[in-house]
Write a structure and sequence with these properties.
The complex is a heterodimer of chains A (about 110) and B (about 120). Chain A contains no helices and 11 strands. With about 110 residues, chain A is an all-beta fold. In chain A, the strands form 2 sheets. In chain A, strands 2, 4, 5, 9, 10 and 11 form a 6-stranded mixed beta sheet that branches. A 5-stranded antiparallel beta sheet of chain A has the order 1-3-8-7-6, with no helix packed on it. The radius of gyration of chain A is 13 Å and the shape is globular. Chain B starts with a strand and ends with a strand. Chain B is an all-beta fold and about 120 residues long. Chain B is globular and about 35 Å long. The chains are: A mainly beta (about 110), B mainly beta (about 120). Chains A and B meet through strand 4, strand 5 and strand 10 of A and strand 4, strand 5 and strand 10 of B.
């Protein structure tokens, strides 16, 4: 089955700096790659996603890149703010109604 | 904005007891999921459900677990004979379709503590 690896497990950045979180996946059939943000004690919430026919997608300060050949995708957050502090999970999904497979998460701390 | 709702938010149970976790998916969604998250760890898939039957389950989802959609709105996860290691946050999720690029919406979770 699919396996998703995520790095780093923790990341601290100064407010205003950029943060990059990287994930790799094992199954070349996966074609949907969402990123979820989870604040302490709350539900995971989708912040951005990318389909396999797209190499990059941007939404304001957040961008995601996908390299299907290398089977990795990354989340980029620019101009980080303290409210960006949370755990971020990447995930991958096959075709059909197979479930999301999550990475282990990255705890991002933005230091004011 | 419609959302997935879960009850209770917290559940404390004695080891060996049975618990039922309840979820109300978004009304026009057809695919339902249960995930769990042990404290500080990643979100793990348990089971997916479509058309009144299980469509996929993980190795975690053994005979101790069962799911049911008893009516048109609720989706439940039953855990029989709970163990200490079942303590976790349990998330229900739903999606409109099962295709890969359909967003899965998560409920706020039920924190299960087995003592």
């Amino acid at each position: 089955g699919e396996n998703v690896e995520q790095h780093p497990s923790t990341l601290s950045v100064q407010e205003g700096d950029s943060a990059v979180i990287k994930c790799t996946y094992s199954d070349s059939a996966s074609n949907y790659f969402p990123w979820y943000k989870q604040e302490l004690g709350k539900r995971p919430q989708l912040i951005i996603d990318i389909r396999s026919n797209v190499g990059e997608k941007k939404d304001q300060r957040i961008a995601v890149t996908l390299n299907k050949t290398a089977k990795h995708f990354s989340l980029h957050i620019t101009e980080t703010q303290p409210e960006d502090s949370a755990v971020y999970f990447c995930a991958a999904k096959y075709s059909g109604n197979t479930p999301l497979v999550f990475g282990k998460g990255t705890r991002l701390s933005v230091i004011a | 904005e419609p959302e997935v709702t879960q009850t209770p938010s917290h559940q404390v149970t004695q080891m060996g007891q049975e618990v039922i976790l309840r979820c109300v998916p978004i009304s026009n969604h057809l695919y339902f999921y249960w995930y769990r998250q042990i404290l500080g760890q990643k979100v793990e898939f348990l089971v997916s459900f479509y058309n009144n039957e299980i469509s996929e389950k993980s190795e975690i989802f053994d005979d101790q677990f069962s799911v049911e959609r008893p009516d048109g709105s609720n989706f439940t996860l039953k855990i029989r004979s709970t163990k200490l290691e079942d303590s976790a946050m349990y998330f229900c999720a739903s999606s409109q379709t099962g295709t890969p690029n359909t967003e899965a919406f998560f409920g706020q979770g039920t924190r299960l503590t087995v003592v």
